[in-house]
């Protein structure tokens, strides 16, 4: 495994530093970033062999970042390292293209095993998680959009996350490289599609469905 390029994404500096120290002796850690959008850009720049993502990343969460990375490079190998242990998140992670899901609590002891499994073309889930939720289903045929964010499109989920994080319309437009009018259009479509009437309701929906942490 020595020499493989790794990209790490976690918004907690201490966790990012800890993962880097844990893995640096066996891998070439090419970048460590703090949000999902930066992770996608870093992937395109460095083309790592493995990408480790937290689920609850700001600006663009880890699930959506994984989707975009897999769209750019379907052969990308993605491992999630997360505090989230609900079945809901695991289904999303594997539907988004993940190959492993490791609990942060056990990352120090399990991460090398998870990486080895992924390198051998296998899936990996922390035993503590499978004990909690039962045997993880092998049927991945469900539409990821139904598992993550209901009826929303990928772009709408991006906009919704940024709204839930308290970003202003102009700030969202700058992040997504679109006009404010386009952001407002997406927001209106989201509200109409979900049947909600306020930003507060949008935020509650985003939090309840794992779109924003």
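Sequence proposed for the structure above (213 residues):
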């Amino acid at each position: 495994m020595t020499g493989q390029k790794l990209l790490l994404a976690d918004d907690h500096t201490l966790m990012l530093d800890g993962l880097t120290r844990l893995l640096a002796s066996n891998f070439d850690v090419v970048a460590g970033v703090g949000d999902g959008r930066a992770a996608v850009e870093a992937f395109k720049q460095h083309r790592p062999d493995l990408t480790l993502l937290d689920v609850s990343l700001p600006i663009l969460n880890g699930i959506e970042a994984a989707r975009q990375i897999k769209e750019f490079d379907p052969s990308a190998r993605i491992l999630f390292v997360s505090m989230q242990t609900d079945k809901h998140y695991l289904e999303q992670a594997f539907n988004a293209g993940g190959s492993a899901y490791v609990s942060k609590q056990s990352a120090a002891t399990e991460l090398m095993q998870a990486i080895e499994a992924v390198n051998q073309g296998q899936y990996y889930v922390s035993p503590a998680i499978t004990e909690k939720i039962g045997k993880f289903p092998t049927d991945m045929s469900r539409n990821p959009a139904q598992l993550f964010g209901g009826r929303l499109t990928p772009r709408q989920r991006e906009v919704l996350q940024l709204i839930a994080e308290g970003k202003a319309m102009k700030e969202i437009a700058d992040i997504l490289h679109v006009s404010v009018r386009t952001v407002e259009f997406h927001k209106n479509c989201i509200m109409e599609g979900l049947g909600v009437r306020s930003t507060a309701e949008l935020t509650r929906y985003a939090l309840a469905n794992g779109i924003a942490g």
